[in-house]
């Protein structure tokens, strides 16, 4: 009986396993954001998490699966699917929904400080994609893209797979990508873009006006010559 009890306690899951896994995720984010996937080490991540050197392999199967998980988590923290879905479904007018979506994206991007590891990690991945971008695309980007494409398609009166939808989406998303990657540098080069000069609400309203004007031009067919 004693032997059976001892065997059970040794082979069963450790009660602190979930906490250790969560600590590794939190520690890995800043490490990957600072060093990139190629130069980050499991040793440094485990040290920051207060775990032993083998913890990364034990909980994630290696540094590569850990990076893929952290990358997806970074995008979830930046742009939550539920928040996007609420913004896309509040109003019946698709133009108002697009304004709400752009407002959400501007607030999210501009709320990230220099110390925000999710913003820095996503920016690094966008500039220098790793082989793990595919999981990010499949699990995080595609569902969110579908929401945005759906609103744009409704405004234009076309199907979501129409080429004009993707082209319009590019014009809408590009300013947000630029703010995410280099907001501080943009503000230095073009001071009117700085937070002290233009509020989130006003910037979002102007981006939305520009986007809706472009969508109307595309939808009218006047761009085709």
Give an account of the 3D structure:
The chain contains eleven helices and no strands. Helix 7 crosses helix 11. The protein starts with a helix and ends in a 5-residue tail after the last helix. The radius of gyration is 22 Å and the shape is elongated. With 225 residues, the chain is mainly alpha-helical. Mean pLDDT is 87; it is low at 1-13. The protein folds into two domains: 2-61, Arc Repressor Mutant, subunit A, CATH 1.10.10; 76-220, Orthogonal Bundle (Tetracycline Repressor, domain 2), CATH 1.10.357.10.
In short:
The chain is mostly helical and 225 residues long. Helix content is 76%, strand content 0%. The longest helix is centred in the last third of the chain and has 27 residues, at 163-189.
Query: Could you tell me the radius of gyration in angstroms?
Result: 22 Å
End-to-end CA span: 86 Å
CATH architectural type of the largest domain: Orthogonal Bundle
Please report the first level of CATH classification, the CATH class of the largest domain: Mainly Alpha
Helix proportion of residues, in percent? over 70%
Which term fits the overall shape? Answer: elongated
| Topology, number of strands | 0
Strand content: under 5%
Low-confidence stretches: 1-13
What is the H/E string?
HHHHHHHHHHH
Q: What's the CATH H-level homologous superfamily of the largest domain?
A: Tetracycline Repressor, domain 2
Number of individual domains? 2
- The whole-number mean of residue pLDDT values reads 87
Largest sheet: none
CATH fold assignment of the largest domain: Tetracycline Repressor, domain 2
Question: So how many helices?
Answer: 11
Structural class: mainly alpha
């Amino acid at each position: 009986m004693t032997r059976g009890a001892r065997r059970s306690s040794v082979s069963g899951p450790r009660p602190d396993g979930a906490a250790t896994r969560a600590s590794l995720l939190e520690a890995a984010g800043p490490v990957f954001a600072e060093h990139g996937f190629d130069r980050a080490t499991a040793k440094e991540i485990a040290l920051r998490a207060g775990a032993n050197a083998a913890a990364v392999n034990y909980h994630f199967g290696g540094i590569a699966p850990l990076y893929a998980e952290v990358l997806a988590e970074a995008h979830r923290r930046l742009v939550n699917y539920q928040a996007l879905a609420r913004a896309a479904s509040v109003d019946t007018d698709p133009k108002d929904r697009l304004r709400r979506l752009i407002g959400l994206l501007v607030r999210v991007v501009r709320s990230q400080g220099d110390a925000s590891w999710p913003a820095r990690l996503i920016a690094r991945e966008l500039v220098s994609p790793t082989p793990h971008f595919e999981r990010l695309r499949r699990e995080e980007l595609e569902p969110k893209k579908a929401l945005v494409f759906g609103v744009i398609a409704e405004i234009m009166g076309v199907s979501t797979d129409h080429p004009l939808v993707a082209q319009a989406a590019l014009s809408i998303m590009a300013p947000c990508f630029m703010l995410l990657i280099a907001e501080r540098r943009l503000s230095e080069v073009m001071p009117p873009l700085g937070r002290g000069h233009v509020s989130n609400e006003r910037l979002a309203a102007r981006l939305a006006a520009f986007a809706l004007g472009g969508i109307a031009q595309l939808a009218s067919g006047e761009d085709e010559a």
